[in-house]
Fold:
Amino acid sequence: MTIAEYIERLFPQFEPALKTILIENATLRDFQGGDMLMQTGQNMRSTVLIVEGMVKLYREGEDGQEFFMYYLQPGNACALSMICATKQETSQVMAKAIEQTKVLMIPIALMDKLMRDYRTWYYFVIETYRMRFEELLFVIDNIAFKAMDKRLAFYLKKRAGDLNTKELHLTHSEIASDLNTSREVISRLLKKMEQAGEIKMYRNYIEYLA
Structure:
């Protein structure tokens, strides 16, 4: 698909003049699963809009341990790239493609103009901030208030809903990383969920049944 086709399909709320300026200035980039879109300390020169695939945002500790924040899907923008690009600051998070992904890169030089001249872009940015803030509140609530079995159940439910599929191609290690726990704990809890009829585990994926 062309940039114009992606914008028409995923961002129909944008006013015609905004669509035109994005088509004229945005670039389309491809990332393979595992590729990094953003790293800690990186200078951001563009705002990122996801048009295909899925991106995982996380913080990385000094010991290399990952702290999962949230996923970005087609139609989403990276709020942190907007902030860093606008304020010309370096990134404090990591962003990694978890499957083949395409993104629109919008130059930092356009940000002030887009916010000033295009109301639909302004509202899009505000809504993006709101959604990401709610995602972070969800992460905090899970860490602070919920037991791991509840966190895991909700994680699988949300992932199935986000992807609109019951086949979740996730390893136990990936889930453990996202939930900031050990692989052994996740394997034990998944086994309990399978015994309860909530999931079914196969060699390469988990089927969500609940």
Q: What stands out?
A: Residues 174 and 183 are 8 Å apart (CA to CA). The beta strands are 27-31, 36-38, 46-52, 55-60, 66-72, 94-97, 101-107, 167-168, 199-201, 206-208.
